[in-house]
Fold:
Amino acid sequence: MSKNEVAILGAGMHPWGKWGRNFVEYGVVALKEAIKDAGIEWKDVDFVVGGDTMRNGYPGYVAGATFAKAMGWTGIPIASCYAACATGAQAIEIARTRILAGMAQVAAVGADTTPKGFLAPNKGERTLDPDWLRFRLLGDEPDLFRSLRPAPHGPHGATEQDFARIKVKNSKHGFTNPNARYRQIYTEAEVLASPLVAAPLRLFEICATSDGAAALVLCSMEYAKKKGIAKPVRISAVSTVSPTFPNTIIDMPDFSTDSAAGIPAPDRSFKDSISYAAYQEAGVDPSDVNLAEVYDLSSALELDWYENIGLCKPGEAEGMLRSGATELGGRVPVNPSGGLSCFGEAVPAQAIAQVCELTWQLRGTAGERQVEGAKVGITANQGLFGHGSSVLCTR
Amino acid sequence: MSTSKQKKRVAAVEGWIDVDPKNPRLVGYKDDASGTYFFPKDVSISRAPGFADTPLREVRLSNRGKLWSYTTNHYKPPEPAISPDPFVPYTVAAVELTEERMVILGQLADGVDPATIEVGQEMELTLATLYEDDENEYIVWKWKPVSA
Structure:
């Protein structure tokens, strides 16, 4: 058992969608829900972390101060962070370490929203910005969706049907989730009839960008006990690892991988190392995991994660998918929430939303999408530019 | 059009490419102490851990490698990407240079049908005009199969 545990006292979300309202609204709805769920009041919170929203072309950021101000200034310390898609995990980690250090008892963590449409760099002649240069010289960001992988099209020779099957699975999972944006069950034929985006991936196999927000209330194990909660859901590990040189898998926004000509590539790839660090810290084996929430920016990425987080051996992801093991009712359901496939991505909030789902699953309150008897859950995610993100929860 | 003055060929990003059509090369950097290559030069020091004090030497990277992966984009990318109107899908290839042990992205050369390329096949560097103005042609690198 991990020595570094904190309790999850409350979880809350604003439903994902394309609402077009002031973005602070979403965050506050989620945070108020988490506080209510925790059975505390805003004045009990002694630390706030905000996962920042970077909005290209919009003024300002959502940060820790934004939440603290919107809820009513109480003078407490705050922190703000940004780590692309891993923002939420870093916000959780800042709160956790502060609690473990004894410098806070009850911390609120929140984040929201993404600018709409296909992502694009900021305007202007930005010749020193690698993002801008990649659009200028290469077109778009093809590996955003992990379509750029070895083997004839996709990881280990996954078929078009495999990618479609993942969408079908996630659409069934998210169908009854009140926070999901897309609640429609798709057939394989419907997915395969959607337009190609980054071949072999199709429109229904890549995620949209959404408005949404997620928040958590974390506290020390001692505080949870004092509140009379005998068996809280615990955060047993948080991984925010970075790659080890040379990182030999191409990633945004780079034009090239690191060179392995001088220093050999590490035994464990960056993506394998993300959950590995969480398992090590928690003292949990991948075979103990009952469910996983993984970052399915595309169907191909979900398939990769099966291997990266040790749910199966390298090369076995397609077999695992086809066996039904990752569906609700299977050995280890993946993305029981419906995943990004049903939510769309609200970049900074997403890693927190993953932990909200684990919280409800481990409490046994996830309704029709409940994973029976779930005791151990893990999230996995990778923020661009080398931000690892994995949270392991137990109960 | 009587004064068909030859436009000057320049690299789309200064210092990244040798634009001589007879010997197109990407300009890379090497730290000789660790033996590591870099492209493009994004910092002035070696990023190999422990070698930050090693000066980077400008080198010309191999112009051949093996196709590691590729994908074809079927939607018009936003600015500042430059794409023809009407839009046609384009392919981005990832090619692993054997000597440098690094994968470098580039568009697949015009006229090469992505249905005809295969992971593992030998590719070579070629040049193409990304855009032009009154004075210059701005040159970018692309990948093409060695046989083509």
